Amino acid sequence: MLARSHAQRLVVLLDPCHSGGVGSLKGPNGGLVPGYTEKALSRLATGTGRVIIASSRADEASLEFAGAKNSLFTQHLVDSLRGTARTPGDGVIRVFDVFNHAGPKVGSDSLGRQHPVFKASQMEDNFPVALDRGGVKFAAPAPAPHLPTDDWKRIEDILVNLYPAGPQDQEIWARAGGDLSRLRLTGRGRVDWFAAFRTLRQGGGGACISADALIRAGLDDFLHHQDLQCLLGVL
Q1: Contact 111, 188 (CB under 8 A)
Q2: What residues does the Peptidase C14 caspase domain cover (predicted)?
């Protein structure tokens, strides 16, 4: 199909893997779905002004966190095209800039488990792929309900103890209506919880996430946890 195209400039985006849970990918037989090989990507990129951007290396899988609207790669790709990769001054979003923005973000958020790939053939310039026309790109997050600082700290301390691996532990954040792709995860549990609660208090972290939802999700796992029960009565 690509060989039949007469377009002078062509960008192909590949994100072929489908998630079956947090950080896991499933193929038709339940196994991991690998990325495209270097040889295959080079063959696809043959032609004038052709660019292939793939979500992962050949020996990696593309991550999709439970509860997230898009895969990790697609989320950062969309953000790039919406304007985060625009060139200062002219507002033009160019193909190299899209990859240079999305690639490191994916690598960081996946804790080094996923690395997008860029392949190009006979490119003469960093050509535009989108135009940032300004305006509101994202809906403003709803403010978090007012809670005393001590209550926020109590909730955080309890969840750090119950879910030491961080907001992704046992999918607690996603089960509470949050979007893990909106968090910057480092793999350090307490650090990630601190950052997640800071985001939550600013109204971010996902469209449906709330302190109340986190407590209720925690009680699903720890039904008789007295501190969680007490906090639920405060909210």
Answers
A1: no
A2: 11-127
Query: How far is residue 215's CA from residue 193's CA, in Å, rounded to a whole number?
Result: 14
* Residue type for position 34: P
For the chain, list residues with pLDDT below 50. 18-33, 135-144
Q: Give the integer Cα–Cα distance in Å for 120 and 45.
A: 6
CB contact at 8 A, 209 and 163? no
- Pairing relationship of beta strands 50-54 and 10-14 according to DSSP bridges: parallel
Q: Are 228 and 215 in contact (CB under 8 A)?
A: yes
Sign of the Cα torsion 28, 33, 37, 43 reads positive
| Per-residue pLDDT tens digits for 20-50 | 233 333 334 433 345 556 665 565 555 557 8
CA atoms within 13 A on the CB side of 39: 0
Burial of 199 (0-12, 13-18, 19+ CB in 10 A): buried
The structure's pTM equals 0.48
